Amino acid sequence: MEGKKNYSGNLKIDRLKRIVIWMTLLLMVPGIKAQQQEDTGFTEYKGVVMDAKSNKVLEFATINLMNSNISTISNIDGAFLLKVPNELKQDTVVISYLGYKTQTVPLSSFGRGEMVIRMTEAFESLPDVNLVEADPVKVIQKVIDRRRANAFKEPLIVKAFYRESIQKRKTYASLAEAVIDVYKEPLSSSKKDYVKLDRARKSTDYRKIDTLVIKLQGGPYNNLNMDMIRNEDLFFTSDIFEIYTFTFDKMINMDNKNVYVIDFIQKPTMVEPFYKGRLYIDAVSYALVKSVFSLNLENLNKVKRFFVKKKPPNADVIPTSTKYIVDYRETKGQWHYNYSRIELSFKVDWDKKWFNSLYNITIEMAVTDWGVNDQNLTVKSRERMRRSIILADEASGFSDPEFWGERNVIEPDKSIENAIKKIQRNLSK
Length: 429
Hints:
Structural class: mainly beta
Radius of gyration: 22 Å
Helix content: 10-25%
Strand content: 35-45%
Number of helices: 7
Largest sheet: 10 strands, antiparallel
Number of strands: 21
Strand order of the largest sheet: 12-11-10-21-20-19-17-16-15-14
Protein backbone atom coordinates (compact mmCIF):
# COMPACT_ATOMS: atom_id res chain seq x y z
CA MET A 1 0.00 0.00 0.00
CA GLU A 2 1.29 3.43 -0.89
CA GLY A 3 2.38 5.45 2.13
CA LYS A 4 1.16 8.92 2.91
CA LYS A 5 2.97 11.78 1.24
CA ASN A 6 4.33 14.37 3.59
CA TYR A 7 4.55 17.64 1.69
CA SER A 8 6.82 19.78 3.76
CA GLY A 9 8.01 22.10 0.98
CA ASN A 10 7.70 25.81 1.57
CA LEU A 11 5.31 26.31 -1.31
CA LYS A 12 2.59 24.18 0.16
CA ILE A 13 3.06 25.29 3.73
CA ASP A 14 2.90 28.92 2.63
CA ARG A 15 -0.22 28.20 0.66
CA LEU A 16 -1.94 27.10 3.82
CA LYS A 17 -0.84 30.11 5.77
CA ARG A 18 -2.02 32.61 3.25
CA ILE A 19 -5.73 32.23 3.96
CA VAL A 20 -5.83 31.47 7.63
CA ILE A 21 -6.03 34.25 10.17
CA TRP A 22 -2.99 35.09 12.23
CA MET A 23 -4.02 35.69 15.82
CA THR A 24 -2.00 37.03 18.69
CA LEU A 25 -3.18 35.94 22.11
CA LEU A 26 -1.66 37.95 24.91
CA LEU A 27 -2.18 37.93 28.63
CA MET A 28 -4.14 41.07 29.33
CA VAL A 29 -2.71 43.82 31.35
CA PRO A 30 -5.25 45.69 32.86
CA GLY A 31 -37.72 51.90 10.12
CA ILE A 32 -36.53 50.88 7.41
CA LYS A 33 -37.03 53.17 4.45
CA ALA A 34 -35.68 54.42 1.16
CA GLN A 35 -34.33 57.66 2.54
CA GLN A 36 -33.52 60.84 0.69
CA GLN A 37 -30.28 62.46 1.85
CA GLU A 38 -30.83 65.92 0.48
CA ASP A 39 -27.73 67.44 2.01
CA THR A 40 -25.34 64.70 1.04
CA GLY A 41 -26.36 64.04 -2.54
CA PHE A 42 -27.35 60.36 -2.23
CA THR A 43 -30.40 58.23 -1.49
CA GLU A 44 -30.56 55.04 0.58
CA TYR A 45 -32.44 52.00 -0.73
CA LYS A 46 -33.08 49.18 1.69
CA GLY A 47 -34.41 45.68 1.14
CA VAL A 48 -34.24 41.99 1.89
CA VAL A 49 -33.61 39.08 -0.53
CA MET A 50 -35.70 35.94 -0.06
CA ASP A 51 -36.58 32.65 -1.75
CA ALA A 52 -39.96 33.11 -3.43
CA LYS A 53 -41.27 29.69 -2.34
CA SER A 54 -39.88 29.11 1.13
CA ASN A 55 -39.37 32.73 2.27
CA LYS A 56 -35.89 31.69 3.33
CA VAL A 57 -33.51 34.67 3.35
CA LEU A 58 -30.71 34.53 0.79
CA GLU A 59 -27.39 35.58 2.29
CA PHE A 60 -24.54 37.10 0.30
CA ALA A 61 -26.64 37.95 -2.76
CA THR A 62 -25.05 40.54 -5.06
CA ILE A 63 -26.94 43.81 -5.48
CA ASN A 64 -25.56 46.20 -8.10
CA LEU A 65 -26.65 49.09 -10.28
CA MET A 66 -27.23 48.23 -13.94
CA ASN A 67 -25.41 51.26 -15.32
CA SER A 68 -22.76 51.66 -12.65
CA ASN A 69 -20.20 49.58 -10.77
CA ILE A 70 -21.79 50.51 -7.44
CA SER A 71 -22.78 47.36 -5.54
CA THR A 72 -23.25 45.70 -2.17
CA ILE A 73 -23.91 42.28 -0.63
CA SER A 74 -26.88 41.05 1.39
CA ASN A 75 -25.96 40.04 4.94
CA ILE A 76 -26.75 36.74 6.71
CA ASP A 77 -30.28 38.04 7.33
CA GLY A 78 -30.71 38.65 3.58
CA ALA A 79 -30.84 42.42 4.21
CA PHE A 80 -29.05 45.12 2.22
CA LEU A 81 -28.66 48.88 2.08
CA LEU A 82 -27.56 50.51 -1.17
CA LYS A 83 -26.49 54.17 -1.28
CA VAL A 84 -26.98 55.68 -4.71
CA PRO A 85 -25.88 59.16 -5.91
CA ASN A 86 -28.95 61.24 -6.68
CA GLU A 87 -27.91 61.60 -10.32
CA LEU A 88 -28.40 57.82 -10.69
CA LYS A 89 -31.88 57.64 -9.13
CA GLN A 90 -33.37 56.54 -12.46
CA ASP A 91 -31.12 53.48 -12.62
CA THR A 92 -32.12 49.85 -12.02
CA VAL A 93 -30.95 47.44 -9.33
CA VAL A 94 -29.77 43.99 -10.46
CA ILE A 95 -30.01 41.19 -7.88
CA SER A 96 -28.14 37.94 -8.59
CA TYR A 97 -27.75 34.76 -6.58
CA LEU A 98 -26.23 31.45 -7.56
CA GLY A 99 -28.94 28.99 -8.58
CA TYR A 100 -31.63 31.68 -8.95
CA LYS A 101 -33.00 33.79 -11.78
CA THR A 102 -31.49 37.24 -11.83
CA GLN A 103 -33.97 40.01 -10.99
CA THR A 104 -34.04 43.66 -11.97
CA VAL A 105 -35.89 46.28 -9.96
CA PRO A 106 -36.06 49.99 -10.92
CA LEU A 107 -34.96 52.25 -8.08
CA SER A 108 -38.23 54.12 -8.55
CA SER A 109 -40.07 50.99 -7.35
CA PHE A 110 -38.55 51.24 -3.88
CA GLY A 111 -41.19 52.78 -1.66
CA ARG A 112 -40.98 54.09 1.87
CA GLY A 113 -40.96 50.60 3.34
CA GLU A 114 -38.42 47.81 3.00
CA MET A 115 -38.39 46.25 -0.48
CA VAL A 116 -38.77 42.46 -0.42
CA ILE A 117 -36.99 40.84 -3.35
CA ARG A 118 -38.36 37.34 -3.98
CA MET A 119 -36.01 35.19 -6.04
CA THR A 120 -37.10 32.19 -8.11
CA GLU A 121 -34.88 29.14 -8.52
CA ALA A 122 -33.40 28.63 -11.97
CA PHE A 123 -32.91 25.24 -13.56
CA GLU A 124 -30.03 24.25 -15.76
CA SER A 125 -30.48 23.81 -19.51
CA LEU A 126 -28.50 20.62 -19.96
CA PRO A 127 -28.95 20.38 -23.77
CA ASP A 128 -26.74 23.46 -24.13
CA VAL A 129 -23.84 21.74 -22.39
CA ASN A 130 -21.42 19.13 -23.65
CA LEU A 131 -21.66 16.63 -20.84
CA VAL A 132 -18.53 14.86 -22.10
CA GLU A 133 -16.62 17.89 -20.86
CA ALA A 134 -18.14 17.52 -17.41
CA ASP A 135 -15.18 15.35 -16.46
CA PRO A 136 -14.09 17.28 -13.35
CA VAL A 137 -10.37 16.93 -14.04
CA LYS A 138 -10.81 18.35 -17.54
CA VAL A 139 -12.92 21.20 -16.20
CA ILE A 140 -10.35 22.14 -13.53
CA GLN A 141 -7.55 22.04 -16.10
CA LYS A 142 -9.52 24.45 -18.30
CA VAL A 143 -9.98 26.79 -15.33
CA ILE A 144 -6.20 26.85 -14.97
CA ASP A 145 -5.58 27.25 -18.70
CA ARG A 146 -8.07 30.13 -19.06
CA ARG A 147 -7.26 31.90 -15.80
CA ARG A 148 -5.65 34.90 -17.48
CA ALA A 149 -8.08 35.03 -20.38
CA ASN A 150 -11.03 35.35 -17.99
CA ALA A 151 -9.44 37.95 -15.70
CA PHE A 152 -9.24 41.72 -16.15
CA LYS A 153 -6.33 42.81 -18.33
CA GLU A 154 -6.07 46.28 -16.78
CA PRO A 155 -5.22 47.58 -13.31
CA LEU A 156 -8.21 48.46 -11.15
CA ILE A 157 -8.98 50.72 -8.21
CA VAL A 158 -11.54 48.97 -6.06
CA LYS A 159 -13.63 50.46 -3.27
CA ALA A 160 -14.44 47.79 -0.67
CA PHE A 161 -15.97 47.37 2.77
CA TYR A 162 -14.26 45.22 5.39
CA ARG A 163 -15.56 43.92 8.73
CA GLU A 164 -13.96 41.72 11.38
CA SER A 165 -15.53 40.55 14.63
CA ILE A 166 -14.62 38.39 17.62
CA GLN A 167 -17.31 36.77 19.74
CA LYS A 168 -16.86 35.03 23.05
CA ARG A 169 -19.68 32.54 22.82
CA LYS A 170 -22.48 34.85 21.57
CA THR A 171 -21.22 38.13 23.00
CA TYR A 172 -19.21 40.52 20.80
CA ALA A 173 -15.85 41.28 22.34
CA SER A 174 -14.37 43.13 19.37
CA LEU A 175 -15.76 44.73 16.22
CA ALA A 176 -13.83 46.62 13.56
CA GLU A 177 -14.99 47.97 10.19
CA ALA A 178 -13.28 49.82 7.37
CA VAL A 179 -13.82 51.24 3.91
CA ILE A 180 -10.69 50.79 1.81
CA ASP A 181 -9.28 51.41 -1.65
CA VAL A 182 -7.63 48.36 -3.21
CA TYR A 183 -5.13 48.91 -6.00
CA LYS A 184 -5.36 45.67 -7.98
CA GLU A 185 -2.88 44.66 -10.64
CA PRO A 186 -3.68 42.47 -13.67
CA LEU A 187 -2.53 38.84 -13.58
CA SER A 188 0.22 39.67 -16.06
CA SER A 189 1.86 41.98 -13.52
CA SER A 190 4.38 40.83 -10.92
CA LYS A 191 3.32 43.66 -8.60
CA LYS A 192 1.28 42.88 -5.50
CA ASP A 193 -2.14 44.34 -4.78
CA TYR A 194 -2.11 46.85 -1.94
CA VAL A 195 -4.61 48.71 0.22
CA LYS A 196 -5.14 52.33 1.23
CA LEU A 197 -7.36 52.98 4.24
CA ASP A 198 -10.25 55.35 3.62
CA ARG A 199 -12.09 55.25 6.94
CA ALA A 200 -12.34 52.79 9.86
CA ARG A 201 -13.90 52.36 13.30
CA LYS A 202 -13.53 49.81 16.09
CA SER A 203 -14.67 48.86 19.53
CA THR A 204 -13.05 46.32 21.83
CA ASP A 205 -14.25 45.28 25.27
CA TYR A 206 -11.37 43.33 26.78
CA ARG A 207 -13.49 42.46 29.81
CA LYS A 208 -15.38 40.03 27.60
CA ILE A 209 -12.22 38.23 26.51
CA ASP A 210 -11.32 37.09 30.01
CA THR A 211 -7.57 37.27 30.43
CA LEU A 212 -6.84 37.31 26.70
CA VAL A 213 -6.34 40.01 24.17
CA ILE A 214 -7.07 38.50 20.78
CA LYS A 215 -5.80 40.47 17.80
CA LEU A 216 -6.23 39.63 14.13
CA GLN A 217 -3.24 40.39 11.95
CA GLY A 218 -3.48 41.26 8.27
CA GLY A 219 -6.91 42.91 8.11
CA PRO A 220 -8.22 43.16 4.51
CA TYR A 221 -5.16 41.36 3.16
CA ASN A 222 -6.57 38.11 4.61
CA ASN A 223 -9.54 38.46 2.28
CA LEU A 224 -7.47 39.52 -0.71
CA ASN A 225 -5.29 36.44 -0.22
CA MET A 226 -8.40 34.30 -0.71
CA ASP A 227 -8.61 35.36 -4.34
CA MET A 228 -7.95 31.92 -5.86
CA ILE A 229 -7.52 33.33 -9.35
CA ARG A 230 -5.19 36.17 -8.43
CA ASN A 231 -3.07 33.97 -6.12
CA GLU A 232 -2.28 30.93 -8.21
CA ASP A 233 -0.22 29.35 -5.42
CA LEU A 234 -3.33 29.14 -3.24
CA PHE A 235 -5.18 26.36 -5.02
CA PHE A 236 -4.89 26.13 -8.82
CA THR A 237 -1.30 24.90 -8.91
CA SER A 238 0.49 22.54 -11.28
CA ASP A 239 0.36 19.77 -8.65
CA ILE A 240 -3.32 20.23 -7.85
CA PHE A 241 -4.27 16.77 -9.14
CA GLU A 242 -1.70 15.15 -6.85
CA ILE A 243 -3.31 16.81 -3.83
CA TYR A 244 -7.05 16.67 -4.50
CA THR A 245 -9.72 14.31 -5.76
CA PHE A 246 -12.45 16.04 -7.80
CA THR A 247 -15.99 14.78 -8.34
CA PHE A 248 -18.78 16.20 -10.47
CA ASP A 249 -21.85 16.97 -8.35
CA LYS A 250 -24.48 18.68 -10.50
CA MET A 251 -25.27 21.71 -12.58
CA ILE A 252 -27.05 24.87 -11.57
CA ASN A 253 -27.95 28.08 -13.33
CA MET A 254 -26.98 31.70 -12.73
CA ASP A 255 -27.66 34.70 -14.96
CA ASN A 256 -28.97 32.26 -17.60
CA LYS A 257 -25.60 30.51 -17.60
CA ASN A 258 -24.92 26.89 -16.74
CA VAL A 259 -22.54 26.39 -13.84
CA TYR A 260 -20.64 23.20 -13.00
CA VAL A 261 -20.66 22.22 -9.33
CA ILE A 262 -17.51 20.25 -8.51
CA ASP A 263 -16.57 18.88 -5.08
CA PHE A 264 -12.97 18.44 -3.98
CA ILE A 265 -11.21 16.77 -1.07
CA GLN A 266 -7.57 16.07 -0.32
CA LYS A 267 -6.37 12.60 -1.15
CA PRO A 268 -5.98 10.20 1.80
CA THR A 269 -2.28 9.86 0.95
CA MET A 270 -1.69 13.51 1.89
CA VAL A 271 -0.46 14.16 5.43
CA GLU A 272 -0.39 17.96 5.38
CA PRO A 273 -3.78 19.62 6.05
CA PHE A 274 -5.31 20.90 2.83
CA TYR A 275 -8.88 21.82 1.95
CA LYS A 276 -12.21 20.29 1.09
CA GLY A 277 -15.14 22.04 -0.47
CA ARG A 278 -17.01 22.96 -3.61
CA LEU A 279 -16.22 24.93 -6.78
CA TYR A 280 -18.76 26.65 -9.03
CA ILE A 281 -17.43 27.04 -12.57
CA ASP A 282 -19.02 28.72 -15.59
CA ALA A 283 -19.65 25.97 -18.16
CA VAL A 284 -18.80 28.15 -21.17
CA SER A 285 -15.88 30.37 -20.12
CA TYR A 286 -14.55 28.03 -17.40
CA ALA A 287 -14.23 30.99 -15.07
CA LEU A 288 -14.46 30.40 -11.34
CA VAL A 289 -17.79 31.79 -10.13
CA LYS A 290 -17.63 30.86 -6.45
CA SER A 291 -15.92 28.55 -3.98
CA VAL A 292 -16.96 27.37 -0.52
CA PHE A 293 -14.40 25.33 1.39
CA SER A 294 -12.84 24.51 4.76
CA LEU A 295 -9.50 23.44 6.15
CA ASN A 296 -9.00 19.79 7.08
CA LEU A 297 -8.69 19.82 10.90
CA GLU A 298 -7.95 16.14 11.44
CA ASN A 299 -4.27 16.73 12.17
CA LEU A 300 -4.66 19.33 14.93
CA ASN A 301 -1.00 19.41 15.84
CA LYS A 302 -0.16 20.66 12.34
CA VAL A 303 -3.21 22.90 12.01
CA LYS A 304 -2.79 24.84 15.26
CA ARG A 305 0.47 26.47 14.16
CA PHE A 306 -1.26 28.03 11.14
CA PHE A 307 -3.49 30.23 13.28
CA VAL A 308 -1.67 31.43 16.36
CA LYS A 309 1.43 33.59 16.16
CA LYS A 310 1.82 34.16 19.88
CA LYS A 311 0.04 32.78 22.97
CA PRO A 312 0.46 32.40 26.73
CA PRO A 313 2.39 29.27 27.73
CA ASN A 314 -0.50 27.97 29.85
CA ALA A 315 -3.09 28.06 27.07
CA ASP A 316 -3.82 25.65 24.23
CA VAL A 317 -5.69 27.04 21.20
CA ILE A 318 -7.70 24.43 19.32
CA PRO A 319 -9.50 25.25 16.03
CA THR A 320 -12.92 23.59 15.94
CA SER A 321 -14.24 24.72 12.54
CA THR A 322 -13.30 26.84 9.53
CA LYS A 323 -15.27 28.08 6.55
CA TYR A 324 -14.10 30.12 3.56
CA ILE A 325 -16.26 31.74 0.87
CA VAL A 326 -15.05 33.62 -2.18
CA ASP A 327 -17.08 34.68 -5.21
CA TYR A 328 -16.59 36.57 -8.45
CA ARG A 329 -18.59 38.82 -10.78
CA GLU A 330 -18.49 39.03 -14.55
CA THR A 331 -18.39 42.32 -16.45
CA LYS A 332 -18.29 42.21 -20.25
CA GLY A 333 -16.65 38.80 -20.32
CA GLN A 334 -14.06 39.58 -17.63
CA TRP A 335 -14.28 38.21 -14.10
CA HIS A 336 -13.16 39.94 -10.93
CA TYR A 337 -13.16 39.42 -7.16
CA ASN A 338 -16.50 40.36 -5.56
CA TYR A 339 -16.76 39.05 -1.98
CA SER A 340 -15.00 36.80 0.50
CA ARG A 341 -15.67 35.63 4.03
CA ILE A 342 -13.73 33.68 6.64
CA GLU A 343 -15.39 32.04 9.65
CA LEU A 344 -13.26 30.48 12.36
CA SER A 345 -14.29 28.85 15.65
CA PHE A 346 -11.81 27.80 18.29
CA LYS A 347 -11.55 27.01 21.98
CA VAL A 348 -8.87 27.95 24.47
CA ASP A 349 -8.00 25.32 27.05
CA TRP A 350 -6.27 26.66 30.15
CA ASP A 351 -4.06 24.71 32.49
CA LYS A 352 -5.62 24.24 35.93
CA LYS A 353 -9.05 25.48 34.76
CA TRP A 354 -12.20 23.40 34.63
CA PHE A 355 -13.83 25.30 31.78
CA ASN A 356 -12.55 26.34 28.37
CA SER A 357 -13.30 29.54 26.46
CA LEU A 358 -15.11 29.43 23.12
CA TYR A 359 -14.57 32.07 20.41
CA ASN A 360 -15.92 32.79 16.94
CA ILE A 361 -14.09 35.00 14.45
CA THR A 362 -15.65 36.35 11.27
CA ILE A 363 -13.99 38.54 8.66
CA GLU A 364 -15.59 39.58 5.38
CA MET A 365 -14.96 41.99 2.55
CA ALA A 366 -17.20 43.09 -0.33
CA VAL A 367 -16.47 45.21 -3.39
CA THR A 368 -18.79 48.25 -3.43
CA ASP A 369 -17.43 50.12 -6.47
CA TRP A 370 -14.54 49.88 -8.89
CA GLY A 371 -13.02 51.38 -11.99
CA VAL A 372 -10.11 50.91 -14.36
CA ASN A 373 -6.94 52.65 -13.20
CA ASP A 374 -6.29 54.07 -16.68
CA GLN A 375 -4.32 57.01 -15.27
CA ASN A 376 -1.90 54.69 -13.48
CA LEU A 377 -2.65 56.30 -10.11
CA THR A 378 -0.59 55.06 -7.20
CA VAL A 379 -0.15 55.59 -3.46
CA LYS A 380 3.09 56.34 -1.63
CA SER A 381 4.45 53.44 0.39
CA ARG A 382 3.96 55.21 3.72
CA GLU A 383 0.26 55.69 2.93
CA ARG A 384 -0.36 52.03 2.16
CA MET A 385 -1.87 49.73 4.75
CA ARG A 386 0.77 47.42 6.19
CA ARG A 387 0.30 43.72 5.42
CA SER A 388 0.85 43.00 9.11
CA ILE A 389 -1.76 45.55 10.20
CA ILE A 390 -3.89 44.95 13.29
CA LEU A 391 -6.91 47.02 12.35
CA ALA A 392 -8.41 47.14 15.82
CA ASP A 393 -5.29 49.00 16.99
CA GLU A 394 -5.62 51.72 14.38
CA ALA A 395 -9.32 52.46 13.92
CA SER A 396 -11.47 55.13 15.62
CA GLY A 397 -14.73 54.83 17.55
CA PHE A 398 -18.44 54.23 16.92
CA SER A 399 -19.80 57.48 18.30
CA ASP A 400 -20.90 59.04 14.95
CA PRO A 401 -24.16 57.47 13.61
CA GLU A 402 -23.45 59.00 10.17
CA PHE A 403 -19.87 57.75 10.17
CA TRP A 404 -19.94 56.12 6.69
CA GLY A 405 -21.63 58.97 4.83
CA GLU A 406 -22.15 58.09 1.17
CA ARG A 407 -19.93 54.98 1.40
CA ASN A 408 -21.62 51.63 0.82
CA VAL A 409 -21.17 48.98 3.51
CA ILE A 410 -22.49 45.51 4.25
CA GLU A 411 -25.64 46.07 6.27
CA PRO A 412 -24.99 44.72 9.79
CA ASP A 413 -26.98 41.61 10.65
CA LYS A 414 -29.26 41.72 13.68
CA SER A 415 -26.61 40.57 16.15
CA ILE A 416 -24.02 43.07 14.91
CA GLU A 417 -26.63 45.84 14.74
CA ASN A 418 -27.52 45.19 18.38
CA ALA A 419 -23.83 45.22 19.30
CA ILE A 420 -23.35 48.58 17.52
CA LYS A 421 -26.38 50.07 19.29
CA LYS A 422 -25.01 48.91 22.63
CA ILE A 423 -21.60 50.40 21.83
CA GLN A 424 -23.20 53.73 20.91
CA ARG A 425 -25.30 53.75 24.09
CA ASN A 426 -22.20 53.18 26.20
CA LEU A 427 -20.33 55.97 24.38
CA SER A 428 -23.17 58.43 24.97
CA LYS A 429 -23.15 57.93 28.75
